[in-house]
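Changelog note: in this version the structure field was regenerated for every chain. One regenerated record is shown below for reference.
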Amino acid sequence: MTTKVNPDLQRERDKCTFNITELTNIIDGGPEKTEDRKRMEELVLKEGIHHDDVPMQYLSHKEKYERAIKKSCYLFKLIRRLQEEDNASMENYRAVLGGNLGSAILQDGSPLTLHYVMFIPTLMGQATVEQQAYWIGRAFNLDIVGTYAQTELGHGTFIRGLETTATYDPKTKEFVLHSPTLTAYKWWPGGLAHTANYCIVMAQLYTKGKCHGIHPFIVQLRDEETHMPLPGIKVGEIGAKLGMNGTNNGFLGFEHVRIPREHLLMKNSKVLEDGTYVNAPSSKLTYGTMMFVRVVIVNDMCNYMAKAVTIATRYSAVRRQSQPKPNEPEPQILDYVTQQHKLFIGIASVHAFRLGAEWIWNMYNNVTAELEAGDMDRLPELHALSCCLKAVSTSDAAETVERCRLACGGHGYMQSSNLPVAYGLVTAACTYEGENTVLFLQTARYLVKAWQQAAGGDALPPTVSYLGRVTTGRRVPPWDNSIQGIIDGFQRVAAGKIGLCVANIEKRQKTGMAYEDAWNMTSVQLASASEAHCRAMLLSCYYEETEKLCAQASPALRQVLSQLADLYVVYWALQRVGDLLRFTSISERDIEQLQNWYEDLLVKLRPNAVGLVDAFDIKDEILHSTLGAYDGRVYERLMEEALKSPLNKEPVNDSFHKYLKPFMSGKL
């Protein structure tokens, strides 16, 4: 570092008890992957694409999009060059396309994200071999730019309710796409407004007078040379949002737009030339892309949480405030237990969700391989897990980022802290790719079936096998105030909630209520049961995976990793103490012991707080925060950033002469 580090921050690093690089290597997946990441960051940041003369917050909506396009083009040009020079696979550049590095360059979202995250994966998952041969090469080379349009103005998560139609005309061997109402207009796809010239459109397929439900079609939106919208295509921007204003979210309507029959993606379902519809082996085969994106989202949430806790923890080591003891210096705010309570659970959450994401990613790959072999037995289990894990990770990330912003006091409200920007990005994830409440209810449908299977004595998949062990008919066992005891308690809570939901639905049905109405009346409890199931799975996964990591770690790091995992489990026990009182035999004395245990863990982790966030190894150029830089020059950076405001370019603003002076003189 060429700049002197803040002495408070340096002291924090000096008292760290473990090797920070060792933890960084574990987070990355090994020393080689850490080196690959660092090398890639150096290569990309050396290009200077991340530098801005004017901070993003001072740009207009139009200027934000134009900057995002400029940076995206430079970034992907760089990726092509690096691929040619290194002859490396696309896997090595995942950090550039997404993750921390991509979000540092494209701070407010990229209009090309859906091209890579939805357009190409959908082609890979839903197109025939012949269709892939034609489209995927063009997409990878960016000869065309694509997006994915499913959500409409009037319908989102309820896919069966989508109104866009694709009617087959056997005379011309074409599909006719049409938006029959205003609410049928596609709404929200990133890059749709002015960037993409092709789009995968989800529409109701009609042939021979019959509707066969939602199917994917590839549709050209704009001329490949002039980029003008094609006839019948009504496309534009939806307007400014809380965040992600570089994403170029758009609307799309069709006025009897004709496309070739071959533009229906036909890996699963098909329409023959005469209009005969050939059904897919299973309707569940279309889940693949959605599950893939939900797994990617969990990883994204880890990155945003890691940034937020790094900013807030470093700032808390530098910021001194109040004087609890007379005649003594103001303490670092990190010494306040309430501040530790806000931040340390965030650090633990990054590790919990990172391990959870790796676990479900491995499961996704295994189930995908089984699908290719025609085995769909574990698909419902994976779908249920991806739904609830996406919901819990995004809601926890939004809560963590907001908690970190509040932990930074007034300065956290500054956009230059990067915390408001991060909040705008994570809170968006609570609704896209499935609104969280709806996803919890998707998981609940699976859990209700699993409960009924358990009651019938059937074998259960691994993630719900606890339902076979925990039944309401058995005596509640004595409470075990250990980590494994808490995890068992959370499984008992989840099982108890699912069992009550099933009982309430059946009870309401007996009064004559239709099953759908009984489900709706029980839906608050069902969502709660899904959340409880996901918490139990997360706690178990974090604890078990940490045990594996500890077996490979040095004694000093092993101790800290165990303390973090313990903190996470005990924290959630205290957060859900009402549920534990309801469904387990936990006592008031047990709760008091848990509270003392939790506070003791905060004390033990305090010396390693800065070391733990340093281990995330997020460069200043990627963190992009006045409060969280490695050197801790908080106040100098705040002033440097303030001076970049266009309002500070002149000592007297024009408004003084136009309005303020006449007003003060009584001449306005």
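Spot check on this record: The first helix runs from residue 7 to 14. The chain has a mean pLDDT of 91.
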